[in-house]
Write a structure and sequence with these properties.
4 helices
């Protein structure tokens, strides 16, 4: 006498209805596509989050320095401008700047 498990397995070996077969394939394909899209979305958002500047939680806790408290006015705030940086180089560099049209 055969075991009941072997009879139950062999009695219905595959799905009989063609529409049901297509429905199962389409369902599992949609599940796989949804998982792939969600994975790509997660990876894109994680990449974008890593490029952002981190939140500075200690900004409010920093104690201002004594020099900054005394010297709050800057020349730019008073309407003045900062000095331009000194250009390095000799006569040859000046000639080259003149040829390029830069002063």
């Amino acid at each position: 006498m055969k075991h009941w498990r072997s009879r139950s397995r062999s009695a219905m070996r595959n799905i009989q209805y063609l529409i049901l077969k297509f429905a199962l394939v389409i369902t599992f394909g949609a599940i796989g596509l949804g998982l792939a899209k969600s994975y790509c979305y997660f990876m894109k958002n994680q990449h974008d989050a890593l490029l952002e500047e981190p939140i500075d939680l200690l900004a409010d806790l920093e104690v201002p320095k004594k020099n900054q408290e005394k010297n709050t006015s800057t020349p730019e705030a008073e309407g003045g401008s900062q000095k331009q940086a000194h250009r390095k180089g000799g006569a040859a560099a000046a000639k080259q700047r003149f040829r390029k049209g830069k002063s």
